[in-house]
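Internal ticket - ligand job 558, glutamine:
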Amino acid sequence: MADANSSHIAKAAGNKTSKTSPTKYVFVTGGVLSGVGKGVTAASLGALFKARGFSVTIQKCDQYLNVDAGTLNPAEHGECFVTYDGAETDLDLGHYERFLDQDLSRDSSLMTGRVYKKVIDKERAGGFLGKTVQVVPHVTNIIIEEIIECGKNSDIHIVEVGGTVGDIEGLHFIEAIRELGLRVGRGNFVHMHVVYIPFLGTSKEFKTKPAQHAALELRRLGLIPDMIAARSEKEVPIKTIEKLSLFCGVEPRGIVLLPNADTVYRVPLTLEQSGIASYALERLQLKDSAPDLSAWKSLVRKATTTPEKNVKIGIVAKYLDNEDTYFSVIEALKSAARSNAVALNYEWVNSELVDSKNAEVMLSIYDGILVPGGFGKRGIEGKIAAAQYALESGKPYLGLCLGLQVAVIGATRGAGLSEANSTEFDPKSPDPVVYIMELQKGKEGTGGSMRLGSYECILKKGSLASKIYKSGVVTERHRHRYEVNQLYIQKIEQGGLVISGTSPDGMLVEMVEGRDHPYFVATQAHPEFLSRPMRPHPLFAGFIKATIDKLHKSDIII
Ligand code: GLN
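stdout (structure tokens):
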């Protein structure tokens, strides 16, 4: 893919390096409650700066004491997004990459655990020369250093502080941006506070009081925002701006009303219409110009018109309460559906309810089947059955990471190895077709044993994968521990699969596909992380196309 980085140490794309003027900062904080779209607002503002030709970086400060997001429970916290350089991060980085159409590095995710680890490591190494180590200035200084480092090559660096202002866990970040603002001085930073305006059904009115209190809480911590983004469920009356201005001490020009949008991709256009980006640039003493938003407009048009045709995709995964776990997968599917001009319907199929006997009944209603990444044994037999059903019936299939492993298990079982399994699910399997390679043994319980970040894959000449990618070499992001056991290649092929991609040294299986199958493609990587709203990922686009074309096995001549 043109978009992927060619090496593990590739630089974040799209950043100018010949920068002479100082980096300008945009701080984004949240009040009232979290989860109202602060990340999307921050990223949209970034997109507007980018559309004016500025180089932009963006960073998320997270309150958790975890060192990175790899150990957070996806059911609670949503997807773990992986950067090209192998950082396991918060799903907000996914929003950022999609909105900015730009790869971000591990520096863009700053968790409290990483900050404290740095401080404590430095203290243990005698780095503080006998001083008392304190939150101010030692913790805040490390945060400031990390922010400066992350933004140093860009014209504008956006820093989003996770959570809500006033949370005990977030105070060090708030204090750090206050100090950084003082250091760089007026004209070099702006601060946007994202608040929420609730609607009271009984009295039928919007209430600004929580927003006023949120601004008050900020003032208590020494900060008066320059801008307020007011989120609401529905459109609030325009006079709300005056009220917010008066009580929060922000010029009306610095206030933008953001009611729920029909598509998140409208947010940059709504922000632009309000004039808030121009206002921010004025405060930052940067030259404003007319942004080219034609691509955004066309994206919004596509995202808000319902095409006639629709496709129904079954996503076979173990039961999870939190849809955000597969946020990038859904975004990639939506993007692929838009590019194919079809409406996307997707349903979650609880893999604990699927088995080889009922797979056809449960899955034949879908135009295509997707098995996403996953960890652990629960529901694994259902995923294997789903892959096997798709392979044998000619149903379009897209396997992502674990989705490749279950395809390999299914195919080898089909070839007669009835107890074939991954050692992740059956450590005693007589046929460990997916296993931990010798090199990785003993590190199973640690984050360190995962293959993380971008790796190259060489595609087999003439394979479906090479046709879809229109390339012989691709780079995709990884996050997994287990690999296909190459001792079983013959059985895998006998089961109906072709190894269509391997690591450059041939040691690792990267992709498999169904022989004589309309579209059975599985990858050991996570292509969803590279899909962008305006540039759908070829594997997803090809998958959706196959579900529309409804070809049969016999129609395919590869
Ligand atoms: N559990 C599998 C592994 O560790 C797959 C991981 C994934 O799907 N991300 O290899």
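Auto-summary: The CA atoms of residues 398 and 543 lie 7 Å apart. The first helix runs from residue 38 to 50.
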